[in-house]
Amino acid sequence: MKVLVTGGAGYIGTHCLVELIKAGITPVVYDNLCNASLESLARVERISGQAVAFVQGDIRDPDALTALFKAHRFDAVLHLAGLKAVGESVAKPLEYYDNNVVGTLRLLEAMTAQGCVNLVFSSSATVYGDPQALPIDEEQPIGATTNPYGTSKYQIERMLADWACATPDARVIALRYFNPVGAHPSGLIGEDPKGIPNNLMPYVQQVAAGKLQRLSVYGDDYDTADGTGVRDYLHVVDLAQGHLAALRKLTTMAAGKTAVNLGTGIGLSVLQLVRAFEAACGASLNYQVVARRPGDIAACYADPAHAQEWLGWRAQLGLPQMCEDAWRWQSSNPSGYADT
Ligand SMILES: NC(=O)c1ccc[n+]([C@@H]2O[C@H](COP(=O)([O-])OP(=O)(O)OC[C@H]3O[C@@H](n4cnc5c(N)ncnc54)[C@H](O)[C@@H]3O)[C@@H](O)[C@H]2O)c1
């Protein structure tokens, strides 16, 4: 099986590559490197003991995509390429709609033209907006998004549903990730944010490494066990294995589009994550409780039953493993891939 991995040089993409190669699947990475470096692929090669085919290009470039699909006969596409910073999407909405929505449109055009109609897409729990009930299952309405990033994922999901309806034999799985964290246990690949991290775990990692002074915990008066926000943190290796399960499912599922949550189903608070990270790194973390952030919700965690029943996938790795692996990556690569 040969699979195109758009955005394959990024955080989640590199972990997917490791699992694909382990399973005997041949990936071809297509990435414009706007948020990644070639070193990440060199690290995947070190872990896997295999060369990884790479083409530098943008998903919005129709000519480059046509050349790519003519050069390879892909059985499926894992579409991870996209911009993902919520705050940046509020400041630069058009960039997000152009990159994420228009980019996916161009990719679908190229796939249709070349008769490759099997797709696994990186969606996000942000498509649910403020959830109506917990845990969140796939039947909950989507679209009441709270930022352009989330809206771009919602619009893409709608476009995929319409495309799957109109395209004979098209098979699409939208994976709605909850909160991917951690790193490969080798410590060779992990999340390498540019500038100040947007997400909690990389921020915590950099506080532990002394690169950032203090963590701000936004609110401890939510209606949760310890008052801090609750999220569904998921080990990135589990997430990558979810992609493998989805790729396998493409070969047996009925034509059409299906959405699947990828989460553990366990809600963990900010303070629980901080305590677990302190245990992993052997030091206490400097943090301060500050006011709530506008737009943040109290709790968000998945109902993972559909993934278990339909994909045969469930998360295996717990919070201690997430923190230990994140710390191994951070402490052995204090400046990320730039250390090389
Ligand atoms: N990390 C998360 O918390 C999270 C949660 C939910 C969904 N997602 C989605 O998963 C996907 C992967 O996320 P990630 O955390 O690995 O992010 P990442 O930024 O590390 O990886 C995305 C990759 O896509 C590439 N890319 C971006 N725009 C491109 C374009 N126009 N053409 C070609 N390549 C392009 C980047 O260079 C990068 O290598 C994204 O679509 C993201 O929205 C991520």
TrEMBL record:
GO cellular component term, pick one: cytosol
- What is its pathway? Carbohydrate metabolism; galactose metabolism
What does the subunit comment say?
Homodimer.
Gene encoding it? galE
Read off the SUPFAM superfamilies from this record.
NAD(P)-binding Rossmann-fold domains (SSF51735)
**Gene3D superfamilies referenced in this protein's UniProt entry, alphabetically:** NAD(P)-binding Rossmann-like Domain, UDP-galactose 4-epimerase, domain 1
Q: What cofactor is this protein dependent on?
A: NAD(+)
Query: In which domain of life is the source organism classified?
Result: Bacteria
Q: Which UniProt keywords apply?
A: Carbohydrate metabolism, Galactose metabolism, Isomerase, NAD
Q: Which Gene Ontology BP annotations are present?
A: galactose metabolic process
Residue intervals of the NAD-dependent epimerase/dehydratase domain: 3-263
Q: State the name under which the record lists this protein.
A: UDP-glucose 4-epimerase
Please report which protein family the annotation says this sequence is part of. Answer: Belongs to the NAD(P)-dependent epimerase/dehydratase family.
MF annotations from Gene Ontology: UDP-glucose 4-epimerase activity
Q: What is its EC number?
A: 5.1.3.2
Q: What is the lineage of its organism?
A: Bacteria, Pseudomonadati, Pseudomonadota, Gammaproteobacteria, Oceanospirillales
Please indicate if the UniProt record lists NAD as a keyword.
yes
Catalytic reaction list: UDP-alpha-D-glucose = UDP-alpha-D-galactose
Q: Which residues form the signal peptide?
A: none
